[in-house]
Amino acid sequence: MGSDSRRPARLLRAVVALLLVASSAPTLFAAAKKSPPPPPKGAATNSKGEPVSLRGNTEKTVPLRTHSIYAPYVDSDLQNRWFDFGGSTIINTNKHVRLTQDRPSQSGWLWSRLALAPNSFEVEFEFRVDGKSNNLYGDGMAVWLTKARAGMGPAFGSSDYWDGLGIFFDTYANARHSYQFPRIYAIMNDGTKSYDVGKDGADQEIGACSINFRRTDVTAKARLTYFAGKFLELAIQHKKWDEWTTCFAVEGVQLPPQPFLGFSALTGDVSDAHDIISVTTSNIVYHPPAAGSKPPSRRSIPGAGFFSKLFSLLKWVFFIVLIVVGVMAYRGRKASRNAKRF
């Protein structure tokens, strides 16, 4: 009889323990998710810190042939009317402009001859980063929009202390970080600051993301959209055709007037081939959103709503079970006391 009287008490303690677990489960579930580094100041993000696109109200208008390049890249004199190239750059007229071969200690560049006159534009370029190694490779490539055309240097094959914007496609981490590599990050410079190679530009970036753009199944593409004084946005195609991932969008960016467009790449002790396949630049116009329009709703993290509802339901179930067990325990004790009297 004593054993039977203790069963409700043991069951009650078990239910209380389960109730405590259920009440803390949402907190544990949230803590288990790896928190990404906080977005840089000025970055356009949603409530979860994820980058959001700002280019929805822009429209391409006039293609800019002066800042676009395609195969065969050069004329009969092995020159291009609108672009210069040098360093280790090699032109394969059927395939690509190869900024570096998959060899150590190479540095190559491709620069527009003319400055970009429009205040707002979009640059879309196909590129490929690949090599023989599956483990150690580097260093990476860069896209430039700067006040002057730069020479060769330590900043991914281009000069340091640039005036304007550099976007780095970095495949080799020189320091330990909380985020993964390959990594893409943008740095604005006024010509007075040096690129921190040892820290991979940490604390200098205005926008960044970790995307594996190396050795992709489809030809990788980058789409850089700039509207003067309003926003700068970079999106990447790296998984499927016409599936774009917003890397970063930064509001209030102001580039130098009439910047030059450039590409450069660098290899060190480790190496990769860095190819530019095509570049298409267009002028854009911006249409302000209609008054009263609401931004499109965004889906939450998959499964988060389900778990939240499940935990809420479990709380009510355990609460009801707790009441039932309490009644059973009370009746068990009462029956035990009555049995002792007789």
UniProtKB/TrEMBL annotation:
Tagged with keyword Signal: yes
Transmembrane regions: 310-330
Ranges for domain L-type lectin-like: 61-284
Pfam families: Lectin_leg-like
PROSITE patterns recorded: L_LECTIN_LIKE
Single Gene Ontology MF annotation: D-mannose binding
Alphabetically ordered keywords of this record: Membrane, Signal, Transmembrane, Transmembrane helix
GO CC aspect terms: COPII-coated ER to Golgi transport vesicle; endoplasmic reticulum membrane; endoplasmic reticulum-Golgi intermediate compartment; Golgi membrane
Region (Disordered), start-end ranges: 30-58
Swiss-Prot/TrEMBL GO biological process terms: endoplasmic reticulum to Golgi vesicle-mediated transport
SUPFAM superfamilies linked: Concanavalin A-like lectins/glucanases
InterPro entries: ConA-like_dom_sf, Intracellular_Lectin-GPT, Lectin_leg
Keyword Signal recorded: yes
Cellular localization per UniProt: Membrane
Gene3D superfamilies linked: 2.60.120.200
Topology of the protein relative to the lipid bilayer: Single-pass type I membrane protein
Signal peptide residues on this chain, from the entry's feature table: 1-30
This protein's name: L-type lectin-like domain-containing protein
